[in-house]
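Below is one such protein, fold included:
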Amino acid sequence: MKAICNGRFILPQEIREGQALLFQEKILGFCSPDRIPPEAERIDVQGDYVSPGFLNLHIHGCGGKDVMDGTQEALRTMSRLLPSTGVTGWLPTTMTSGRGAITQALTAIRDAQGTVAGAEILGANLEGPFISEKYKGAQKACHIRKASWELVEPFAGLIRILTLAPETLEDTDFISRCRQAGIIVSLGHSDATFEEAAQAVAAGASHITHLFNAMSPLHHRKPGLVGAALTLPVTCELIADGIHIHPAALELAVRAKGLNRVVLITDSMRACLLGEGKSELGGQTVYVKDGRAALADGTLAGSILTMEKAVRNIWKWGHLALPQAVQLATANPARELGLIDRGTLEPGKRADITVFDEDFRILRTYVKGCCAFCAAPPVAGRRSRIANLDI
């Protein structure tokens, strides 16, 4: 048994202080510090914040690795590194590529699920190849194809979210088939009209891939996919880095959708956690400078955003209370995937926990009650990070 004490615990409606959080593989509950069982390992967090573990539903890479590498080694590296950003669960995300490359990546995800240490692989996110060439973003046009159940079917139990451009469909049967298989249909990389998007939502689409980015924009006479996303009952992903979306547009999205219909994502690529310089995404050279990842022509190519920074940014720019900002990276994505066993610090939930300070630096992360990350003490005025895995 472990007991986190002297923390500021982030609950859905409040920040609780003066108590201790008891947990093993699951959260046992709160108690006063003088009632901590003597056999419990005491973890004094010295006034830092204690949050449910973050969930990242859309991420391509980090630490020099990418999901499209198609190897378990790449996935192991990412799962090991993600707890240093507060993430305890994630959806490895593919991108538009040849069928063989996508199949290899999905096979690697399936084989790695349940076997890697660190952040848990929750399934897969299939972003492409069923997209619009006009709004392909940093994805290769030569690999774009019509929606095909034949490609999806072998991995129907693995894929949790699937992106498509609804205007490319002949009818809505493909959406219905995905929903019957438990796959969340997300609209994105699309030139859809408002009406085409509304028809897809009526057929079962319920999610929007990185709102505002790579989609038909809002116009007062042609609301487009952005207008549909802001007004229809769908959950919207936001990349809160201040590069993909202006801070004012982030605030607008949260106000329009309400707190329960927004999830934070990073959409990060392999350069994440590595810094600036030349990198790669989907077989294309990416240049990272001043926090921006782009192709040679300036097209945004994913991000180098990390989840703790996304929470900090939406808290600041969205003018939210801290529990509200944390909700967008914890309870909301958990509910989106139907994961009733995580997302809050309630008794009975999995002990997926992250600890961060007032500067949103991750200090500790626990996955299913085991320490997946512990920051080293500051050295010479600088905080460094190490990953201590006991999973």
The longest strand covers residues 54-59. Confidence is low (pLDDT under 50) at residues 380-391. Residues 52 and 344 are 5 Å apart (CA to CA).
